[in-house]
Design goal:
The chain is of the alpha/beta class. It has 14 helices and twelve strands. Helix 5 packs parallel to helix 6, helix 5 packs across helix 10 and helix 12 packs parallel to helix 14.
Length: 401
C-alpha cells in the first residue's frame, strides 16, 4: 500500500479537531438517547463567535454580481496590496510598498509559502515551545526540522536569547517568533524583540514573525521586528512578517492572509504561491479590501469583548485559586492542571474525561509542545457564559481526586 512520504504519514492527527468532532458526536448521542447533558462549553479552538461584519460580506456579494471572477496575479491584486501597505504602516509601524506584499490563503498559507521559499530538507528551524501546532506539519512538508526553544512559565512564557544561543548549529536557517502568542497570549516587549532580531542577524538566520494577532492587544504594545529595521535592512530579506484577516475581522473561513518581506525574497515567495494555488479568489480579496477601508469599529468592539472575557477568566481563576498569569493579547489562556496528572494519567486523558463529565471541551497542552504537557488551553473567543461555565468545570475536575 502506498501512503506518500513516511515522515508526513507518521505525524499525529490534530487532537483539537478530533476533540471538537467528539464533542459533537456526544451531543448527538445524548440527544438520540434522551439524555440530558449540561450545555456544551466549546473552548478548544480559536474561532470567534462573531459573524463576519456585514460590510465585508456585502463586498463579496457585490464582487460576485458585478465583477468578472477571473484568474488574478499570484501575489494578489495591486489595489488590495496598496491597502495592505497602508495598514502595515498604520498598525505595525513600518513603511512598505505593494511590491513588498503578497496575498495568501490565510495566515497558514502565508507561513507555508514563506517556509517553502526559505528552508530545505534537513534545515533546522527554531520554533517556540509552546507553539501553534501547525508549525510542525508545515516544516515536515518542507522536509525541515523544528528545534524547540522553551518559553518558560517562570519567565512569563518569554523566550531566553541565552538558551537560543545554545541551540544554533551549522544547519540552523530560520527563527520563528510569534507575538501575540498562541497558545500563551503573551506579547513580546520591544527590548526582547530587539534582542531576538539581533540574535537572528548575528547568526545569519531568517526571522519569520507570526503576527496574526497583531490587532488583538490588551496590554503592552505590539512590536513588529520589521519596525526596528532600516529600509536597507528590511530589503535584505532576512525578516518575513505574516498577517491574517481571520482573527481581526472574524474571517477565519474566508482564508485571507498576507506576507511582507524584501522584494528579492518576495520574488521567490511569489513563485511558491503561483505554483501552489495560482491566486486567491477576487471575491475574497474584495472582502479584504472592504475590511480595510470600512469602519474599524468592528475591530474595536471585538477586541474589547475579548479583553472583557480575558478579565472574566482571570477573575474566575483567582476566585478558584488557580490563577497563574495574565495574557496580554490574542485570545488564549493556559491553565495548569498538574495536580491532576500522574504517571498513569496525562493531559490527553484529562481533556477526554473533562468532556465526558462536565461537557467542556478544551485543547490539551501537549499538542503545543513539551512545556505545556500539564496544561490545557482555553479560547477566549467563546461566549462569556461558556468561558465561566467551562472554567468552573475545569477547576472542579482538576481539584477532584
Amino acid at each position: 500500500m502506498r501512503f506518500g512520504k513516511q515522515y508526513l504519514y507518521d505525524l499525529p492527527p490534530n487532537d483539537i479537531i478530533k476533540l471538537g468532532a467528539l464533542a459533537q458526536q456526544l451531543q448527538q448521542e445524548a440527544q438520540t438517547s434522551g439524555e440530558q447533558l449540561p450545555p456544551l462549553a466549546r473552548l478548544q479552538i480559536g474561532e470567534p463567535i462573531f459573524s463576519t461584519p456585514e460590510h465585508i460580506r456585502l463586498a463579496a456579494i457585490e464582487a460576485i454580481e458585478h465583477e468578472p471572477i477571473t484568474y488574478g496575479p499570484p501575489d494578489g491584486w495591486h489595489w488590495l496590496r496598496e491597502l495592505l501597505a497602508e495598514k502595515v504602516e498604520r498598525v505595525d509601524g513600518y513603511s512598505v510598498t505593494p511590491e513588498h506584499i503578497a496575498v495568501a490563503v490565510g495566515g497558514t498559507g502565508a507561513i507555508q509559502a514563506s517556509l517553502t521559499a526559505t528552508v530545505s530538507v534537513g534545515d533546522e528551524v527554531l520554533i517556540p515551545d509552546p507553539h501553534w501546532p501547525q508549525y510542525i506539519v508545515q516544516l515536515a512538508a518542507c522536509g525541515a526540522i523544528g528545534v524547540p526553544y522553551s518559553l518558560d512559565p517562570e519567565n512569563e512564557w518569554l523566550p531566553d536569547v541565552t538558551q537560543l544561543e545554545k541551540l544554533v548549529t551549522s544547519r540552523t536557517r530560520l527563527l520563528i517568533v510569534n507575538s501575540p502568542n498562541n497558545p500563551t497570549g503573551v506579547v513580546i516587549s520591544p527590548q526582547l524583540m530587539h534582542d531576538l532580531l539581533n540574535f537572528a542577524n548575528r547568526y545569519g538566520l531568517y526571522l519569520l514573525s507570526d503576527e496574526c494577532y497583531d490587532q488583538i492587544i490588551f496590554e503592552r504594545k505590539h512590536v513588529s521586528p520589521a519596525s526596528m529595521l532600516s529600509r536597507e535592512e528590511f530589503e535584505s530579506g532576512r525578516c518575513i512578517c505574516i498577517y491574517s484577516f481571520s482573527k481581526t475581522y472574524a474571517m477565519t473561513g474566508w482564508r485571507l492572509g498576507y506576507i511582507v518581506a524584501g522584494t528579492q525574497l518576495m520574488k521567490t515567495i511569489i513563485h511558491v504561491l503561483d505554483g501552489s494555488y495560482a491566486n486567491v479568489s477576487t471575491i475574497i480579496q474584495r472582502a479584504g479590501a472592504a475590511a480595510l477601508t470600512g469602519s474599524q469599529e468592528c475591530v474595536t468592539e471585538m477586541c474589547g469583548a475579548y479583553h472583557r472575557r480575558r478579565d472574566l477568566a482571570i477573575d474566575v481563576l483567582k476566585s478558584l485559586g488557580r490563577y497563574a498569569y495574565t495574557p496580554q493579547g490574542a485570545f488564549y489562556l493556559l491553565i495548569n492542571v498538574s495536580d491532576k496528572m500522574s504517571q498513569s494519567y496525562n493531559v490527553g486523558q484529562f481533556v477526554l474525561d473533562l468532556l465526558k463529565k462536565h461537557n467542556v471541551v478544551v485543547a490539551p497542552g501537549n499538542v503545543f509542545g513539551s512545556m505545556t504537557g500539564k496544561y490545557v488551553r482555553i479560547s477566549l473567543a467563546a461566549s462569556e457564559e461558556e468561558i465561566e461555565r467551562g472554567l468552573r468545570g475545569i477547576c472542579e475536575f482538576a481539584s477532584s481526586g
